[in-house]
Amino acid sequence: MIRPHQFRPNPETEADNAFQTPAGSTDWRALAQRAHGEVTQAAETLRKLGVRIDLFEDEGSATPDSVFPNNWFSTHPGGHVAIYPMFAASRRAERRMDVIELLKRDFRVQDVIDYSGLEPDGLFLEGTGAMVLDHQDRIAYVIRSNRADPVLLERFCTHFNYEPMVFDAVDRKGSPIYHTNVLMCIATDFALIGTEMIKDSTRAQEITARLAYVGRSVIDLTTEQIERFAGNAIELQGREGRLLALSQTAFDCLNEAQREIIGESARIVPLQVPTIEMAGGSVRCMIAGNHLADRASPRSQGDRQ
């Protein structure tokens, strides 16, 4: 996780991120302080539940979206790390080698595949924002957008052994959903997905069938629930079992039946992040999951998402 010191919604990403809230005339210092506190509290809550959190500070003013590190790197079982090319120029400065060096120091890293050099060629793939990865069925679910180039997606899937499943999804105004991870979340025993936002109903049925293939319960979310970040959740491993981390905004819009299905598999952990959600992302975007094996133990650390 990255704790920002000068957070603000990024005007450079506002054009294609309908989940972003225009800040208008805002006290930027107060906004940044609230975001700093929300990350601090979220990290403390997860740590108390036994989740390892490596928390980095961002004190710069040129990286307004740094609180969302899952877009620029991802980790994978077997010791693999990927670094991604970012669509918005302001987001490219979020990549930081101290994060990669910590992974190499504390976990078993075999290789780092860096795709970021493809930015000058106009090829972008924004990590586990653009892709939602099913680690059990080896599927990479991807909404078509300017943040997920099909050529680069094919290259990633070849390198990391995933089958791409690409589809179109739009918001109420018919604009493409900017990141797949606001539409869906894949956990061990269930998946959250907003199928009514997928343009092709046949494709939506194919996706839900694949999600259910390994025995998951598929929880269909409404457009309103997606807009309230109910799809932007992440399954983590805590001291006493699996957790589903999501925002309080997301938790409040789930109905009792949906919460019951989730609760059968994972403890639901709502986190207060309303300020950060102004930037168009929520809890899933705030956490770059760790699938690497700990050097001190053969047991893997981090999330199971």
TrEMBL record:
Pfam families: DDAH_eukar. One of its GO terms (molecular function) is hydrolase activity. The keyword Transit peptide does not apply. Keywords: Hydrolase. Residues 1-21 are annotated as: Disordered. The gene is ctlX. It comes from the Bacteria. InterPro entries: Amdntrnsf_FN0238. This is Citrulline utilization hydrolase CtlX. SUPFAM superfamilies: Pentein. The lineage of its organism: Bacteria, Pseudomonadati, Pseudomonadota, Alphaproteobacteria, Rhodobacterales. Gene3D superfamilies: L-arginine/glycine Amidinotransferase, Chain A. PANTHER family: AMIDINOTRANSFERASE.
